[in-house]
Specification:
2 copies of one chain form a homodimer. The first copy, chain A, has helices spanning about 25-35, 40-55, 115-135, 155-165, 215, 220-225, 275-285, 310-315, 330-335, 360-375; strands at about 60-65, 65-70, 80-85, 90-95, 95, 100-105, 110-115, 140-145, 175, 185, 190-200, 205, 230-235, 240, 245-250, 255-260, 260-270, 290-300, 320-325, 340-345, 355-360. With about 375 residues, the first copy, chain A, is an alpha+beta fold. In chain A, strands 1-2-8-3-9-20-10-19 form an 8-stranded mixed sheet, with helices on both faces. A 4-stranded antiparallel sheet of chain A has the order 15-17-11-18. A 3-stranded antiparallel sheet of chain A has the order 6-7-21. In chain A, strand 4 and strand 5 form a beta hairpin.
Chain lengths: ~375, ~375
């Protein structure tokens, strides 16, 4: 007898061990194949934590299903590189489930298909590969992997870290590895939603002249929306295109009643040079004469490309930076005073689509660019 | 032993025996106090049938909760006098249930309060009182009491009789004892509802310029509605006022999506000189360029006041006849080729209201007028 056998290790699952030193495209597929729809990231977060703990140059921290790993080399500058672990739900397209992943083409034409390949396991693979490879970066790095980006804002893992562990996110500059087709997309537009309420007087529709039809009166609101010319605004050298329009309309209680209320829901995506209050004021002027209620609002983020670390990053990528029109978590860094950009493999227009897919060479190129920037090769 | 005692008669309930020869206002209250919300008319229909069977000059027929009683004196003319037994649900107003009935005032100022006093137990009381009193009418009379007028058209008791026993409803002229404030209201407008569908192209609201907003495009539909001038139309000497307007609008699927569809529901109340097809055609022209779908339609009814029996009835009432703007079951008689008018006690604007109430003198006056017309006293 040499003693009792060791108990099975519950946290060890060879199928879920990630190889950070191998092919970054294979790593992308491994990350995708550990299904991690929002709220179900535990298995993937465990695998990421385990892989990072094997790297002696990194300190690893954990909060819920968020994992943070960082160097502490005393560099004059610290950068944060962040990505989310969750995906939107797995779907079925033409009878085929879009997980596990599969590939088409070969060589330069290799494409990885499946849920998460664009949004954003390709970006997470780039993060993990560079975290493992660049053991002595010229800038201190904090790698952030978080949960619940694809669901309600209050569940967002990056928001939770900002509330509970703001020191984990401290830095001079941040890169969010959301898909950008491999270019740098700076900042993001803000978004505000309001309800514009039009009132009238109810009546039986057989005696409509005794009422005042709120739906008819809403024509004035729709005309203002139709006539509205959205701005294009230069902010820190990038050109942001605004959007303003109805995302919903409702009115009426029964088939024989003149409606006494009609509500138009309006979404305004505003350039990051405008504050949420300025955006709200703009809408109140536009819809003067009607009751305007703000239902939700998130500020935009300035691109911050004038920051030296950002300029160096743009130079390392070697392509013209672009504005990000949609809202992303870069705004959370912006709110903490950390300039942030989006940079990652994959076409953002394919995100959330059932036929989500990413060219393998974009993943490799993003890995090479991020590695060069952190290794000081550019 | 003189034999076994007779078994108790299940159909005899003294509390529900109606006195057709007494005070017509008391009779109104008795009819109201036998609660008979649509679908629950059996107790009241039983009481009405029992009271009518006690009258030897009438033949009594029964179908479900509809009761028909008629004379067969070989008169050259037959008139149908109809009313519904059901009410909308009992309600509570200022902590008081609006059944059983109560009264306020006295003498000429006596008012009966409670559910059904207007719509239309006052009218039913007038029918029953005259049915009992005029045993030898100058016109043959068919008295019709029916169920489920206040609910979906397919449950309507008069519609069921028209389908299953059209001979029971045969006549030269019909009076529907719906509340009209004691005047004759001729015919009724028709009603048609359509959905006007405006289409567009969906897009993410952060890139609204890639879509075509269907809600914005609906402004054109609302402008046409707002500009529309409803007609007033003379039909057989009465002036009908049409109505046309939105009764509902809906559009939008999510707070970040440019809507690709907006549906406006429009209700058109059209004068009885227009057929349903003509009404539909009118709407298709008005909304040219948009998809128009008819969801429901009921024809109007011409007043038919040029018919000799109708003219005699108007003369007996002695007040200027008025057009009926709302849709009523006179249209069912009209569809069977029987001219029909509305005539009954109670202000139609109080129908369905929780504070429904009827002046007692209107009930008496309506009883007197109907009795004089049938007795040949005018």
């Amino acid at each position: 007898m040499t003693g009792q056998p060791a108990p099975p290790r519950a946290d060890l699952d060879l199928h879920h061990d990630l190889d950070l030193h191998g092919d970054v495209v294979d790593l992308t597929r491994s990350l995708c194949d550990i299904e991690s729809v929002s709220g179900h990231e535990a298995t993937l977060a465990d695998a990421v934590e385990r892989a990072l703990r094997a790297l002696s140059h990194l300190e690893v921290l954990r909060d819920g299903n968020a994992v943070v790993a960082r160097t502490s080399l005393g560099r004059p500058e610290r950068v944060v590189v962040a990505g989310h672990l969750d995906t939107v739900p797995v779907a079925t397209l033409d009878g085929r489930r879009n997980l596990p992943t599969w590939t088409t083409g070969a060589g330069d034409g290799l494409v990885v298909h499946g849920r998460g390949t664009v949004d954003m396991k390709g970006g997470v693979a780039v993060q993990l590969a560079v975290a493992a490879d660049v053991t002595d970066p010229v800038r201190d790095v904090t790698w952030v992997f978080y949960d619940c980006e694809e669901v309600e804002a209050e569940r967002n893992g990056l928001g939770r870290l900002a509330r509970d562990h703001p020191d984990w996110l401290a830095g001079d500059f941040a890169v969010l590895c959301e898909p950008t087709d491999g270019t740098v997309e700076g900042g993001c537009n803000g978004t505000i939603r309001v309800e514009v309420r039009v009132t009238g007087v109810a009546a039986h529709s057989a005696r409509a002249w005794m009422g005042d039809n709120a739906v008819h009166r809403a024509a004035a609101v729709l005309e203002r929306l139709r006539a509205y010319q959205a701005r294009e605004v230069d902010v820190d050298g990038l050109r942001y295109r605004e959007s303003l329009g109805a995302v919903g309309i409702r009115g009426g209680v029964a088939g024989n009643v003149v409606p006494d209320e009609c509500v138009v829901t309006v979404n305004y995506r505003f350039a990051p040079s405008r504050t949420p209050q300025e955006a709200e004021d703009h809408l109140r002027v536009l819809f003067e004469g009607f009751e305007v209620t703000v239902t939700d609002c998130s500020p935009g983020a300035r691109p911050g490309l004038d920051h030296p670390a950002a300029a160096a990053f743009v130079a390392a990528i070697g392509r013209e930076p672009q504005p990000k029109q949609g809202w992303t978590d870069v705004a959370r860094f912006s709110a903490m005073g950390v300039p942030a950009v989006n940079f990652g493999p994959g076409d953002p227009l394919l995100a959330h689509r059932d036929d989500e897919r990413c060219p393998a060479d974009q993943i490799v190129a993003a890995r090479d660019a991020l590695r060069a920037w952190l290794a000081g090769d550019v």
